[in-house]
Design brief:
This protein has 268 residues and is an all-alpha fold. It has 2 domains: 4-103, DnaJ domain (Helix Hairpins, Orthogonal Bundle); 114-267, no CATH class. 73% of the residues lie in helices and 1% in strands. It has 11 helices and 2 strands. It has helices spanning 4-8, 16-30, 39-55, 58-74, 87-139, 143-146, 149-177, 193-196, 201-226, 228-232, 248-267, and strands spanning 178-179, 199-200. Strands 1-2 form a two-stranded parallel sheet. Helix 8 (193-196) links the parallel strand 1 and strand 2. Helix 5 packs across helix 7. The longest helix has 53 residues, at 87-139. The chain is elongated. 18% of the residues are buried.
């Protein structure tokens, strides 16, 4: 039975990120296009691609780990405790199996949790950005215009921090969940690429731009139809568009993400 961990030169306890890093490093080194079509390197590339296909997926890796453990125990031969029919040896083997299986399950749960948190760090800011654009377009607040100098300084500072934070979240999301044309393939087969990264960066960028545009457009439409707040509190809300409206979405995203971060730590 092929040992995919040895093929990728990683520990059986390696995280998915470590396995992926090892695969990409070997893929760059062994890719047939960089080795004049060498048959030997092509076979090696196929092996690491197969190893990544198995170890890169949590469910497939769990099944493989159990098979590998079973094979290792039964291939030890001789009078080893792994194959002994002694009652105590069988009990010890059962304990080893349970311990290793628990390790596999714990690793899967931890991996899934990391993936879930990574996805949340993309979804929460994106939804917050769309919602904030909608609300700002409806209400059209004039907080900056009505603030004192210190208030304006605070708003500008929060805006800059919000933009930097939002850009960081978008950049991380693009790197983790999207692929570009120049990326090294995740598998030897091109059609396996979307399995790890389902969206192209062009699609993700278009989705963000379209989402912001639609949210702001719908907000303007609703605000123009009802005009409740500008009519009732004209000092706080504007009838027309103003440049200061760009301040509020990044600030809103920053606050939402900070609260989500605190909630995540409490949950942990």
């Amino acid at each position: 039975m092929a040992n995919y961990y040895e093929i990728l030169k990683v520990s059986p306890k390696a995280s998915r990120a470590e396995i992926k890093s090892a695969y990409r490093r070997l893929a760059r080194k062994l890719h047939p296009d960089k080795n004049q079509g060498s048959e030997e390197t092509a076979r090696a590339f196929a092996q690491i691609a197969e190893a990544w296909d198995i170890l890169g997926d949590a469910q497939s890796r769990s099944v493989y780990d159990k098979r590998l453990l079973h094979a290792q125990m039964h291939n030890s031969g001789g009078d080893s405790l792994f194959v002994s029919s002694n009652t105590h040896a069988r009990r010890w083997r059962q304990m080893v199996y349970e311990h290793r299986y628990n390790e596999i399950i714990d690793r899967m749960i931890a991996e899934e949790r990391r993936e879930s948190l990574a996805l949340q760090k993309v979804i929460f800011p994106t939804v917050a950005l769309f919602v904030s654009c909608l609300v700002v377009a409806i209400l059209r607040p004039q907080i900056f215009e009505n603030s004192a100098v210190i208030g304006k300084i605070v708003l500008v500072s929060l805006f800059i921090a919000g933009v930097i934070h939002l850009w960081g979240r978008i950049k991380d999301g693009l790197e983790r969940f999207t692929y570009g044309e120049a990326d090294v393939h995740e598998s030897i087969l091109d059609d396996n690429e979307p399995k790890a990264k389902p969206f192209s960066r062009a699609f993700a960028a278009g989705f963000l731009v379209l989402g912001v545009g639609l949210s702001f457009g719908i907000g303007l439409l609703i605000g123009n139809i009802f005009q409740i707040f500008p009519a009732s509190v004209p000092a706080m809300f504007s009838h027309s568009l103003k440049p200061e409206f760009v301040f509020y979405p990044p600030i809103f995203v920053l606050f939402v993400d900070v609260m989500h971060g605190f909630a995540s730590r409490v949950d942990i």
